[in-house]
Amino acid sequence: MTPLDRLIRRLITQDGPMPVSLYMTLALQHPRYGYYRQAAPIGLAGDFVTAPEVSQVFGELIGLWMATVWAGAQRPGNSIMCEAGPGRGVLLSDALRAIRQALPDFEASTTLHLVESSETLRAQQAEALSPLAPTWHDSVEDLPEGPLFLIANEFLDALPVTQFIYTADGWRERMIGLDAENQLLFIPGTAPATSAAANGLGLPNEAAVGDIHEVQPGVLSFVREIATRIAQHHGAALLIDYGENSPFGHSTLRGIRSHRIINPLTNAGDSDLTVDVDFRAVRQVARSAGAIVQGPVGMGPFLHALGVETRRTALTKVADAKRAAVVDQAIDRLLDPDRMGKIFKVLAIAAPSSGSLPGFSS
Ligand code: SAH
Questions:
Q1: What's the pLDDT tens digit per position in 213-246?
Q2: End-to-end CA distance of the chain
Q3: Separation of 210 CA from ligand 1 center, angstroms?
Q4: SS in 3 state form for the chain?
Q5: How far is the CA of 176 from the centre of ligand 1 (A)?
Q6: Å from CA of 211 to ligand 1 middle
Q7: What gap in Å lies between CA 63 and CA 92, rounded to an integer?
Q8: Atom from ligand 1 closest to the CA of residue 83
Q9: Which residue owns the Cα nearest ligand 1 atom 16?
């Protein structure tokens, strides 16, 4: 049992069952024991590997996407380049290297901003990105105003989820309580859940007993904020995550430890917690903030449309056979529909005056 497992049991004993969102907040963000505060989670030696960690091609193509959209927006000065949840800073280093070659004016017209909650990861980002003098923020609300070019890869899935469960008495918030053996378990709350609790998007009218509806309030406020800024000042955002273009009807909350899925109610603070992103809700919120939305499309087709095969050829041509095979395998992992190519989705938010965005045409 981790120190956080003990703390959570104590809180439930004192105060009664705990909302799933509070459990997820404590497990990931507790100032002392939270997963992102203490661990070095990302990479082969950590708990999970992300797309930028698989191949440099990912960050390079994302960088070129940003620069192309920036050029299409008449190259605004005072632009804000922001990554939310930059992990070890790999994506941005690859992206900015590619941008520097393709569009050297970009860097002089933008300042670099990072939204990151983990002190451990801020230190790693500082090291990876030191020549670029980034500024760190706790939230997108703290960003300066200006045309916003934002990327978030595997960020939204880490924001706390509120769950509702349909019971014989209607919708209830799904809570975490303790059984007679002092083990954590999911239980329905006692008070009826309201649509207000579902953050204005409403709870499904039709449901069967046992159905679960998930809402990520932090995702909705994040999307509302960036979409409002983009609609007002121009810019674009690329959100990449696992999820679907519909609500799920079941719980997608899971623990991840050493590259395996585990019970989310074990190892609090010592394992990652993650949910699938409801891209339909993201689209709804971004549109009502006045922005346009494209996607979600699968990551494989998106990278194909951005020219991943041309980049593959350029990289393998100059490598020896052994290195070329490594490059090939990594790119295949990103594209393969059975691995990362289909589960991961890409969604773009842009200003109403933007033309069609690269990667979303077909
Ligand atoms: N984008 C990176 C890392 C993904 S892991 C990659 O692709 O490799 C999730 C990242 O989001 C981590 O950097 C984590 O510390 C950060 N994060 C999670 N919740 C956050 C929050 N509420 N506010 C700011 N950053 C957060």
A1: 999 999 999 999 999 999 999 999 999 999 998 8
A2: 50
A3: 31
A4: CCHHHHHHHHHHHHHCCEEHHHHHHHHHHCCCCCHHHHCCCECCCCCECCHHHHCHHHHHHHHHHHHHHHHHCCCCCCEEEEEECCCCCHHHHHHHHHHHHHCCHHHHHEEEEEECCCHHHHHHHHHHCHHHCCEEECCHHHCCCCCEEEEEECCHHHCCCEEEEEECCEEEEEEEEECCCCCEEEEEEEEECCCHHHCCCCCCCCCCCCCEEEECHHHHHHHHHHHHHHHHHCEEEEEEEEEECCCCCCCCCEEEECCEEECCCCCCCCCEEECCEEHHHHHHHHHHCCCEEEEEEEHHHHHHHCCHHHHHHHHHHCCCHHHHHHHHHHHHHHHCCCCCCCCEEEEEEECCCCCCCCCCCC
A5: 24
A6: 29
A7: 8
A8: 1
A9: 85
**Pocket mutation for ligand 1, best pick of 44, 53, 117, 119 (most atoms within 8 Å of C-beta):** 117
pTM over 0.85: yes
For residue range 116-171, list pLDDT tens digits in order: 999 989 999 999 998 888 999 999 999 999 999 999 999 999 999 999 999 999 99
Nearest-CA residue for atom 2 of ligand 1 = 87
Distance 221 CA to ligand 1 centre (A): 16
- Pair type for strands 110-115 and 79-84: parallel
Ligand 1 — pocket residues by CB below 6 A? 36, 42, 50, 52-53, 85-87, 91, 115-118, 121, 153-155, 158-159
| C-alpha radius of gyration, the chain, whole number | 21
Q: How far is the CA of 298 from the centre of ligand 1 (A)?
A: 21
With both helix axes pointing from N to C terminus, report the angle between 90-102 and 56-72 in degrees, rounded to the nearest 10. 50
